Amino acid sequence: MANDLQLFVAHINSPIGKIEIVSNNKSIIAIMFIDTENNSYKSLSPTEYRTSEIDKCIQQLNEYFEGKRKIFDVSIELIGTDFQKKVWQKLTDIEFGNTKTYSQQSIALGDIKSIRAVASANGKNKLSIVIPCHRVVGKDGSLTGYAGDLWRKKWLLEHEQKFSTKIQEGKLF
Asked: Using an 8 Å Cβ cutoff, are 87 and 121 in contact?
């Protein structure tokens, strides 16, 4: 029942702004920059409380920002349509320090014509950084579409390139 839904929230400061982490009783359901308009959990009045999963998420985000973590293993719950979940799951295939274009993502999902729907689903991702929608760029490598603001997308990509173990072949953008 919707009335039984209990949410917990914690806030952390990061190099790119304040981040809100929201969990239910077992999984992280949102990691959002709270100075943007994409925070839909304010109206649900989550309890400020640090669950073990939130603590694990905070630790892993801090390790990410320190350049020590490239893969997240926190328990997450994707909340969206089946198509959105499919898009978000496919985003996790893009390795740290790499990018894909929206058209490459559409092809990977089986339909080049779904490019707009893929871009729309990326924009609705509530699990910033952990589900790396920031790794999707325009066809020409340009930075386009990021709910957390393009300057953050640029910072995240440069951060990952800096700590990537792959051979650097020029600038990302």
From this structure: yes
